[in-house]
């Protein structure tokens, strides 16, 4: 069963995922689990999920761009939702579309690629 009407990955997201999957083999499955639980709860049920936040300061009104900071990756054993994996995505509420922008490990970089976000969604 689909959680969102439409789902898309930016080509850069697919490259990020391919690179990270070599190191974290469960990552793809972990993302599916998160979509079906965390994202569904946050966007469909309206539950307050403290690990998802709107990214401030982008000056992009539509779609809303979010950052996931609590993401469980089974390949990072013993860390639970504090795995250090970050997921950046856009959510188009009116058409119920989710678009994945970036995925990275916090130990490799500190912050999302704002230039990538602006290139695809902003001015």
Rg: 14 Å
CATH hierarchy: architecture: 2-Layer Sandwich
CATH topology: YaeB-like fold
**Beta strands, count:** 5
CATH class type:
Alpha Beta
* Secondary-structure element order, N to C: EHHEEEEH
Helix content class: 25-40%
Question: What is the spatial order of strands in the main beta sheet?
Answer: 1-5-4-3-2
Structure notes:
The protein is 33% helix and 24% strand. With 123 residues, the chain is α+β, with helices and mostly antiparallel strands. The chain has a single domain, classed as RelE-like (YaeB-like fold). It has a five-stranded mixed β-sheet with strand order 1-5-4-3-2. The chain is globular.
Short note summarizing the structure:
Helices cover 33% and strands 24% of the residues. It is α+β, with helices and mostly antiparallel strands. The chain has a single domain (6-121), classed as RelE-like (YaeB-like fold, 2-Layer Sandwich), CATH 3.30.2310.
């Amino acid at each position: 069963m689909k959680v969102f009407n439409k789902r898309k990955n930016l080509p850069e997201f697919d490259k990020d995922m391919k690179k990270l999957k070599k190191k974290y083999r469960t990552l793809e499955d972990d993302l599916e689990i998160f979509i079906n639980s965390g994202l569904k709860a946050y966007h469909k049920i309206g539950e307050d999920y403290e690990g998802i936040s709107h990214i401030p300061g982008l000056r992009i009104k539509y779609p809303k761009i979010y950052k996931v900071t609590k993401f469980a990756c089974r390949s990072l054993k013993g860390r639970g939702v504090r795995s250090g994996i970050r997921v950046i995505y856009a959510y188009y509420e009116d058409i119920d579309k989710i678009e994945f922008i970036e995925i990275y490990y916090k130990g490799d970089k500190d912050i999302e690629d704002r230039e990538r976000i602006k290139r695809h969604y902003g001015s």
